[in-house]
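pls design
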């Protein structure tokens, strides 16, 4: 009997250690899992509504919801808020003013693979439907932000009209209130020195209701207009371009010409007398004779100014020594 009692005590002691070991392992597993997936982050994401052709969303409340995501730190860091959205495709009833409450769930959230969604606030989106119609509106001239480094700004854009598809009631209100013009994103001209062209997005007429715009962009030509000036350099000597080793004598009549440059003031200010070269190409002339040849102007900034020469041609005399 004492032997059996001793055996029973030993089994209880052994089981106690096993239970303690199991409890310790469970605790380690719990904290390991919590460390791996216990991080949380909240994002505000847009709610997109996909409807059948001919149906439009007249009102949507709210347009965005706040979603709490849970997962590992690495998975949460990989989330890109710009690509996360909730998309619902409810069945509309009668399109003229019918309402529908849509409950959001985790399966409606796109762009958040690898993490869990633990909370959506608010979880219900109230939609009002209308018939979808199309109208043509004007596209306002894009506004500019910033200041160019030189000159002033002139803006042109193409196309100047766009088509909007949206709720019949909203588009009718736009026409009645004379707001049949849409804006574009601004164009940044800060620090610019030259004209340029870029595409900018047409902005929706309202953030409160859903619309589709075609085209979605316009091409904007931004002209940087600078002060243009004309200056003349008198009696610049004419020089010959000859073949290497050419020992013939070359004379010009007149021996000097006037050069007029048209360009931006700041460019002309950087041109000195020693930077203007007036040349006549004699490298292909084989026979000693008299020629009437055009005068060429060489400048360090040939693309930024427009030169003219007076006279445009000179008599060229080539003589053998």
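designed seq:
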């Amino acid at each position: 009997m004492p032997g059996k009692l001793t055996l029973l005590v030993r089994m209880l002691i052994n089981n106690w250690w096993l239970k303690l070991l199991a409890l310790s392992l469970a605790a380690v597993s719990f904290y390991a899992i919590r460390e791996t997936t216990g991080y949380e982050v909240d994002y505000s994401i847009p709610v997109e509504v996909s409807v059948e052709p001919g149906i439009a969303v007249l009102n949507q409340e709210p347009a965005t919801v706040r979603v709490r995501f849970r997962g590992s730190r690495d998975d949460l860091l990989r989330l890109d808020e710009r690509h996360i959205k909730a998309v619902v495709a409810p069945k509309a009833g009668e399109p003229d003013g019918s309402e529908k409450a849509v409950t959001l769930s985790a399966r409606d959230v796109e762009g958040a693979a690898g993490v869990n969604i633990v909370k959506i606030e608010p979880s219900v989106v109230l939609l009002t439907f209308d018939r979808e119609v199309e109208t043509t509106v004007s596209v306002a001239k894009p506004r500019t932000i910033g200041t160019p480094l030189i000159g002033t700004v002139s803006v042109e854009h193409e196309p100047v009209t766009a088509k909007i598809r949206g709720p019949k009631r909203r588009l009718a209100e736009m026409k009645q209130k004379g707001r049949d013009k849409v804006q574009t994103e601004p164009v940044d001209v800060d620090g610019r020195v030259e004209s340029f062209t870029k595409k900018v997005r047409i902005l929706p007429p309202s953030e409160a209701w859903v619309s589709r715009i075609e085209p979605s962009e316009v091409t904007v030509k931004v002209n940087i207009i600078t002060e243009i000036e004309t200056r003349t350099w008198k009696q610049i000597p004419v020089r010959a371009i000859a073949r290497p080793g050419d020992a013939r004598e070359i004379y010009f009549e007149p021996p000097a010409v006037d050069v007029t440059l048209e360009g931006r003031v700041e460019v002309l200010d950087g041109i000195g007398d020693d930077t203007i070269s007036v040349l006549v190409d004699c490298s292909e002339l084989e026979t000693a004779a008299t020629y009437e040849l055009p005068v060429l102007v060489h400048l360090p900034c040939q693309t930024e100014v427009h030169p003219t020469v007076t006279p445009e041609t000179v008599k060229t005399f080539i003589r053998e020594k």
